[in-house]
Structures are given as structure tokens and as C-alpha cells.
Amino acid sequence: MDGLTDWLDAIAASGRLAEIAMAVLVAELALFLFVYRAPAARRTLVFNTASGLALMAALRAALIGHGALVIAGFLSLGFAMHLAELWFRHRAFTKTPEPPPSPRD
After folding, report:
1. CB count in 10 Å sphere of residue 98
2. Taking the mean position of all CA atoms in its chain, how far away is CA 30?
3. What is the mean pLDDT of the chain?
4. Is residue 6 situated within a structural domain?
5. Where would you find the membrane-spanning parts of this chain (predicted)?
6. Does 1 fall in a domain?
7. What's the predicted TM-score (pTM) here?
8. Average pLDDT, integer, range 14-21
């Protein structure tokens, strides 16, 4: 089991662990963009993924030893993307559907 622990320590210290997580996020986005065709759903997916990527970039920056300014920048970007996602999600949920056309005699 010591070999597995050493390997995990090595990929964490090099930032590769965060890069793997980022690759998984991008693959997940590609899959969901293929599945969901509605513009509102796609928009929230893109901003949700951007938020997650920014958080993973902050993690990677911390793991490889970047300074607080770089880490704070990525965290701020993640927060901005999260707020944008919430805004688009709020707009999608609060839209009232148009009433069906009334029958004409």
C-alpha cells in the first residue's frame, strides 16, 4: 500500500491530481452539452464548469506553491463564474411560460 500512497503524494505535489480533475470536468461538460440542447441548460452548464475549473486551478496553484495572489485570483474567478451561473439559473427558473393560444371559433 506504500507504493500507492507515494504515487498519490507525487501526483498531488506536482499538481497532476488537479489537472486530472479538470480533464474530467471538461469531459463531463462535453457529454452534457451533447445531451442537453436547450440554451438555458447549456449556459448554466458552461458557467458551472468554469467555476469548477477555476477552483481546481486554485487547488493546483496551491499544490505547486504559487503565492496567495494567484490562488486568490483563481478563487475570485470561480466566485464570479458561480454568481453568473446562479444568475442564469435564476432567470431560467423564474421565466413564466406563455399561456397557450385561446381557441378561435
Report:
1. 6
2. 12
3. 92
4. no
5. 20-38, 69-88
6. no
7. 0.83
8. 94
- C-alpha cell at position 25: 470536468
Q: Which residues form the domain of 83?
A: 16-94
Q: How many CB atoms lie within 10 A of CB 33?
A: 14
DSSP string computed for 7-62: HHHHHHHHTHHHHHHHHHHHHHHHHHHHH---HHHHHHHHHHHHHHHHHHHHHHHH
Buried b (16+ CB within 10 A) or exposed e, 21-31: bbeebeeebee
Q: What is the pLDDT of residues 25-35, one digit of tens each?
A: 999 999 999 99
Model confidence over 32-68: pLDDT tens digits? 999 999 888 899 999 999 999 999 999 999 999 999 9
Our count of domains for the chain comes to 1
Burial class (CB in 10 A: 0-12, 13-18, 19+), 67: exposed
10 is a domain residue = no
